[in-house]
Amino acid sequence: MIAFMILYTYNHFKTDILTLGHQCEPFEPDTVVAIARGGMTLAHALSMYMNIRNLQSIRIESYDEDRQRDTVTIFGECDFSRSRRVLIVDDIVDSGKTLQALLPILSQNYPDILFKSAALFTKTTALIQPDYSLHEATDWIDFFWERDFLKSNLL
User: Fold this and answer.
1) CATH value at residue 17
2) What's the whole-model pTM score?
3) Cis peptide bond upstream of 147, omega within 30
4) CA distances from 17 to 47, 110, 125, 154 (A)
5) Distance between CA atoms of 92 and 88, rounded to whole angstroms?
6) Of 20, 77, 84, 133, which has the highest C-beta tally within 10 A?
7) DSSP state of 127
């Protein structure tokens, strides 16, 4: 059950892109990878902010609607043939299971590449913390991209 919900608007997002982008810049990533679907809007915006054309995605599922699964499923692969510094992006690090599953696989498969992660929100109880983050998640977050573009809201 959702106790309290925070509405995360486009205006919040626009301000946060500047702050998170500034945090990530010293890493000098040459590739941005979105964790689909939640990280796609953020990854696109960060890639624009940092002028990184190598934007890719990987699909990882750990939720069914608003219920977290016991296991994480990873779909697809990325092309890192021209990558040396990769920024993995998601909207929220909730349990940390997604990053905890993905990062060791990437590091093992691509030992010459440096991977770092970024998220807008992080729970302090997550199994792993992202390298870059802005807000502590204490309640359910209703992201504008999960609400505003629903077919029922557009008609």
Assistant:
1) 3.40.50.2020
2) 0.87
3) no
4) 10, 28, 24, 25
5) 12
6) 20
7) S
Is residue 61 included in any domain, yes or no? yes
How would you write 28-95 as a 3-class SS string? CCCEEEEEECCCHHHHHHHHHHCCCCCEEEEEEEEEECCEEEEEEEEECCCCCCCCCEEEEEEEEECC
Tens digit of each residue's pLDDT (9 = 90 or more) over 72-103: 777 888 999 999 999 999 999 998 988 998 99
CA distances from 94 to 42, 62, 77, 110 (A): 16, 10, 23, 25
pLDDT at 1: 47
Assess if residue 73 is contained within a domain: no
Half-sphere exposure of 127 (CA within 13 A, CB side): 9
